[in-house]
Design brief:
9 strands; 35% strand; 21% helix; 6-stranded mixed β-sheet; 3 helices; globular; alpha+beta; 3-stranded antiparallel β-sheet
Length: 162
């Protein structure tokens, strides 16, 4: 994920100290039930699509923008899948430390010609749910939540609601 300009400006005075930031994840499905994934430049790993909203940008608009910027796919958010304060901070190779409050959206593709559309991805593509590449646990969890029809998931949600 490329660092937004407003974060770069903030880092000039904050240095590498922990920043608590909003994050948005889009779990995008096509008409065949496949999920859209991108292989990230920064880690080399496959993941769901996500990013940081710009100041004043609505989370759903951010999801749509990030999906298009990274994959050339147009999508429509259908519902909020989860709201989750990520427990563990992330330390980036340059020393910056961030912790994210993630809002995950289930999205429906309205165009499905996926291609690398920026410098954040090595590859992008559609995957059947039973043929996913290796993914981090958080990505698997978000995809699972997006495929279920339950209520929006949040930490502390009663077990009966899962």
């Amino acid at each position: 994920m490329a660092t937004p300009d407003f974060i770069r400006d903030l880092r000039r005075s904050a240095g590498h100290q922990l920043l608590y930031l909003p994050g948005v994840t889009a779990v995008v499905f096509d008409g065949r039930g496949r999920v859209l994934l991108g292989r990230r430049v920064d880690t080399g790993l496959w993941s769901v699509i996500g990013g940081i909203p710009e100041p004043g940008e609505q989370p759903a608009d951010c999801a749509v923008r990030e999906v298009f910027e990274e994959t050339n796919v147009r999508c429509v958010p259908e519902r909020v899948v989860s709201v989750h304060g990520i427990e563990k901070p992330v330390t980036y190779p340059n020393g910056d430390v961030c912790q994210f409050m993630d809002i995950t959206f289930r999205c429906r593709a309205v165009s499905d010609e996926a291609r690398v559309n920026d410098d954040e991805s090595l590859e992008v593509g559609w995957f059947d749910l039973d043929a996913l590449p290796p993914l981090a646990e958080f990505a698997v969890f978000r995809i699972k939540q997006a495929t279920e029809g339950g209520p929006t998931w949040f930490h502390g949600m009663p077990e009966a609601c899962h």
